[in-house]
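Section handout 9: paired folding examples.
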Amino acid sequence: EVQLVESGGGLVQAGGSLRLSCVASGFTFDDYAIGWFRQAPGKEREFAAHITSYGLSSYADSVKGRFTISRDNGKKTVYLQMNNLKPEDTAVYYCNVRDRTYTNYWGQGTQVTVSS
């Protein structure tokens, strides 16, 4: 069974930093790309960052230069380092994997709140 468990969220002041973690199980972690998405209150879930199985990363324009995605295959974990946080980064953050049948799997999410 595919499982993704996010952690590391919290309350931080604008300009601060947080590091989110996503621990995966139930699939061959090394073979899959992992994404981070976020959903703010009253808004649709949106893409934030993505890392391929080879370690190539991509970012939404809104987080580029402030967020860094990385992965540790030995720990089956993907990280999202978030620096210079802004109030508009407030959201529930989810990690995602899509399998070979294009089925999407999501974690339970972790809340990030940035105060101004």
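Moving on to protein 2 of 2.
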Amino acid sequence: EVQLVESGGGTVQPGGSLRLSCAASGFSFISFPMSWVRQVPGKGLEWISSVDRHGQNKRYSDSVKGRFTISRDDSRNMLYLQLNSAKTEDTAMYYCALGSDGTAARGQGTQVTVSS
């Protein structure tokens, strides 16, 4: 059974930083690209970043490019998202997802709130 458990969310001030983590189990983590998506209540899922199986090819949405960094540690089956220069519009529930487009299995999410 695929399990994805996100952690690291919280409240951060505008301009601040936060690091999200995702612990993966139940599948061959090293064999799959992984993604981060986010959702604001009342709106659809927004894909924000993905990384390929080897951790070399990384893609970002225009809304987070230059501020967020995705990474993975295949030895620990972990996926990360470093949020820098946070903006109020980054407030959302963040999910890690199996695959490159964020539409496959997701975890329960971790809430990020950007507020002064």
